[in-house]
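ok so I'm stuck.
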Amino acid sequence: MLTLEALNKSFGKIIAVDNLSLTISKGEFFCLLGPSGCGKTSTLRMIAGFDKPTSGKILLNGVDITDVPPNKRNINTVFQNYALFPHLTVFENVAFGLKIKKISKNEINDRVIETLKLVALEERKDFHPSQLSGGQQQRVALARAVVNKPEILLLDEPLGALDEKLREQMQVELSNIQKKLGITFIFVTHNQEEALTMADRVVVMKDGKIEQLGKADEIYIRPKSRFVAEFIGNMNFLSGKIISTNHTQHVLEFPDKTSIDFSVEKEFSIDEKVTLALRPEQLRLSRTIPNDDENSFKGLIKNEVFFGDSSRFYIKTEHHGNLSVMFQNYLPSGVNPELFHEGDEVYICWSKQAGHILQN
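replied:
not stuck anymore, here's the structure
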């Protein structure tokens, strides 16, 4: 549906978007994810038509819209600050774009009421924005954008101003609304949780380029680079070189000459430098030496951080720095089988099949 061909955007000597090419399908919930300055908002503004590319093309349904002004594109945008008209009611805000298009009064009324029902605000149609909560204002901005029936809806960090609990609620609501409408959503965020929760596909950007593109679970489980691994969630890194390899069974040696076994279906060469990336939830703690089916390091619990449903432990090891381990606090039985505390000596254990290999 939407194709970006070798898109570039520069501001003087600063390159904001660097030779970016991708295709977004009709009805897809697509996310541009990355840290500040990675080029995601610049990309969104070029799709919207607010900024013109330095070079490259933007195609919508095969038609070149690179030089088409924003008001001539069937693309709408929801901004982080919502940009609602404070002197207009909810109904009038949502109807504003339809009035500009000189649509009949009856059709405007029908479409606005239908859209307000979609975002569960029909009972507040006569309220002004100042009388609404942040989440309700966000839904008004969304309704105002979708009432025009755009082919693509752009969302520029629309949940950034909400508190955490409301943001989580709106993630679910946005996803449900997108499925009901079938409109292509392109969502910009620096929040990994938002991207993983809502998007069909995610592109992780760095320095104006695509670092990785794929489904949310692919990016989380199999990051292609250390940058992606660190940016998406939490990760432990163990770097060394391959000293033995045989089909799926490999041995990784560390600088202190200790080694571990790991099992992946991948070819390596002897002395190849790699990094084993392990999510904190792939590790467990034990007070006793684990069996031969697991790898382990001995360490000392330096810090414990309680998150309610889970806890994260930071373990100091002799040769591998600080590693983090996460586990759920409450099992179905309601009893935690083992309690660990700061200052305890423990073994950090993990399966030989766990983790993801990053080539240095």
